[in-house]
Amino acid sequence: MHYYRYSNAEVSCWYKYLLFSYNIIFWLAGVAFLAVGLWAWSEKVPHWPLQVLVDKSVGIQNVIRVFLRVVVILPSGDAFLGSAAQLTARFHEHATEHKEQDGLSRQDPELPVLQQRQEQGSHTRPAVLLVPLLDFQQQLHHGVLSDLTKVTGLHGLDPVVLVLVVGIVMFTLGFAGCVGALRENICLLKFFCGTIVFIFLLELAVAVLAVLFQDWVRDRVKEFFENNIKSYRDDIDLQNLIDSLQKINHCCGAQGPDDWDFNIYFNCSSESKSREKCGVPFSCCIPDPAQKVVNTQCGYDVRKKSKSQWDDQIFIKGCILALEAWLPRNIYIVAGVFIAISLLQIFGIFLARTLISDIEAVKAACSYRPWPC
User: Fold this and answer.
1) Any transmembrane segments, and where (predicted)?
2) Do 160 and 309 fall into the same domain?
3) What is the CATH number of the domain that holds 247?
């Protein structure tokens, strides 16, 4: 007769150390990505990371400073019994007062109101009024949210940021998986498993949407290319990425060489004083096998000529068309990469779920034993 259930429950060492080995590889890869990303970032940004922290803290400090004075205590009658026009006028008046007072270092405009409330005693009830909305919105627009706008607007892509994001995700998941497997920590294992499931479902959804909404994806890719063309000279890593893409695929611009008119350095407008005016980057030039040294000025003034003369000097096919032609030729390679990544993710989910089940079974068996485990 059995006095408790799960008498043979135990944690499988095979699954435990297989999951640990699985995650230690991803953790080391995450460390490598972070090291490369931080090194590349330090090469681009002088006095990194101090200068970056100082620059980013300015906008955040302004937002916090305004947020601290958003909630103003006023008598309830003044706060809510006025008309919409009166409240709007109060917004502008309060915002003007804050602009004239040069920050919080001078006398706080809320002080007379607080003194009035203390003199009135219990005859008034405190009410909350969000007054400096215009000032707060302005600080947000010119401060922290300007960076968010750059991301959501698909402005210039910094490849280093992409490397850092991938490194942080891999480092975090690898660390959670390693510690969770060694310590048999269900919380860390569930975090690892849940994150992998979320990433897998996200990849699956993106793949399905890319097939169903090809025109929308094509428009987004076009917008992405054009915005990065605008930022071609702003970031050296982005510049090298675009040059490599154009040289490998024998293409120029998003839809053609005329797309480089979006860039202020290659723009053909009469106001432009750039030496590269009405030209294209050297990566658009058709390479000459006889030249051993790359001519970085081969694209100067090319677009001043008639389009019939472009064929002998630069690539005229857009990179979007080049990628659309490249994908069918290499569909098996692309599909193989996605299948391999998916199988690795499914394998990690299987190991994590199996180890979680073993740990829960051991805990359940311990709860039925008359002695502690």
Assistant:
1) 20-41, 160-182, 188-213, 331-352
2) no
3) 1.10.1450.10
Clarify whether residues 269 and 319 are in a common domain.
Answer: yes
At 363, is the pLDDT very low, low, confident or very high (cuts 50, 70, 90)? confident
Rounded to the nearest angstrom, the gap between the alpha carbon of residue 2 and the centroid of all alpha carbons in its chain is 56
φ, ψ of residue 122 in degrees (nearest 5): -90, 10
Q: What is the dihedral of CA 181, 187, 191, 192, to 10 degrees?
A: 0
How many domains does the chain divide into? 3
| C-alpha to C-alpha distance for 167 and 160, rounded to whole angstroms | 10
Structure token digits, residue 172: 């975090």
d(CA 114, CA 183): 55
Q: Is residue 228 part of a domain?
A: yes
The closest alpha carbon to 310, from 281, 286, 288, belongs to 286
177 pLDDT more than 50: yes
Per-residue pLDDT band at 238 (split at 50, 70, 90): confident
What's 287's DSSP letter?
A: P
Coil, strand or helix: which one is 7?
coil
For 17-51, letters b (16+ CB in 10 Å) and e give ebbbebbbebbeebeebbeebbebbeeeeeeeeee
Q: Is the pTM of this model over 0.90?
A: no
The answer on pLDDT for 103 being more than 90 is: no
Residue 17 tokens, joined: 């150390």
Annotate 113-175 with DSSP letters as a single string. Answer: HHHHHHHHGGGS-EEEEE--HHHHHHHHHHTHHHHHHHHHTT----HHHHHHHHHHHHHHHHH
**What's the token pair of residue 277?**
């005016």
In whole angstroms, give the CA distance from residue 266 to residue 259.
Answer: 10
Does residue 372 contact residue 226 with C-beta atoms inside 8 Å?
Answer: no
| Residue 220 sits in the same domain as residue 318 | yes
Whether 166 maps to a domain, the answer reads yes
| Boundary (domain end) residue, out of 214, 234, 261 | 214
In a domain, 19, yes or no: yes
Spatial distance between the Cα atoms of 6 and 214, rounded to a whole number of angstroms: 53
CA–CA separation, 247 and 310 (whole Å): 16
Write down the mean pLDDT value for the chain. Answer: 74
Q: Where are the alpha helices (DSSP H) in the chain?
A: 13-44, 50-67, 76-80, 84-100, 111-120, 133-142, 144-152, 159-183, 186-212, 214-230, 236-249, 319-329, 331-368
